[in-house]
């Protein structure tokens, strides 16, 4: 009489079926935030990356959160809204002539844009005009300096001789930041209340 096989005994258990033995668990790829992780002085986390065409909605939401003062400092004049064609244009760059970095807050859904820095290259003059904007609630965290440094690095990579921009005289935080980074100020008689700052590269 053939003895029964004890499947509960570790030495007598049957081996797993071939389909089970070679089957591997399927790994689910979870979406990962893009870009380089940036931690602010107060411990918050953002992701620094190049701007993308899909950032239009986030750019328009950021504009809606800006104060009239912030808008004037960034665009040098008042604007009630950011028109969709302009938002589209700001997110669709010509990489030969422009660079733009964004600081994205991935802790909320949808992800929100907290800062942006960009340059526009003038090939004839071999220089680039910059603009930097950081939301008020994220100011004084070193983000403006980070964006400026990345823009300067990009200009040097391109072999440009100068980076420059217009800044309102009332925008003391930006003027102080640029002074610390080595920018110099020039008189701007054609633009009252505005100064031109530049850095030789």
CATH topology: Aminopeptidase
Biggest sheet record: 8 strands, mixed
Distance from N terminus to C terminus (CA atoms, Å) equals 93 Å
Our estimate of the beta-strand percent is 25-35%
Question: Based on the structure given, which CATH architecture is correct?
Answer: 3-Layer(aba) Sandwich
Structural class: alpha+beta
CATH homology group: Gcn5-related N-acetyltransferase (GNAT)
Total number of beta strands: 8
Architecture overview:
The protein is an alpha+beta fold. It has a single domain, classed as Gcn5-related N-acetyltransferase (GNAT) (Aminopeptidase), CATH 3.40.630.30. Helices cover 27% and strands 27% of the residues. The chain has an eight-stranded mixed sheet with strand order 1-2-3-4-5-6-8-7, with helices on both faces. A hairpin with a 6-residue loop joins strand 3 (98-105) and strand 4 (112-122). Helix 2 (56-65) crosses helix 4 (84-91). It is globular, with a radius of gyration of 26 Å. The N and C termini lie far apart (93 Å). The model is unreliable at 1-13 (pLDDT under 50).
Note the main attributes of this structure:
201 residues, alpha+beta, Aminopeptidase, 8 strands
In short:
This protein is α+β, with helices and mostly antiparallel strands. Helix 2 crosses helix 4.
Topology (elements, then pairings):
Blueprint: H1 18-21, E1 36-39, E2 45-50, H2 56-65, H3 68-75, H4 84-91, E3 98-105, E4 112-122, E5 127-134, H5 143-158, E6 162-168, H6 172-180, E7 184-186, E8 194-200
Parallel strand pairs: 5-6
Antiparallel strand pairs: 1-2, 2-3, 3-4, 4-5, 6-8, 7-8
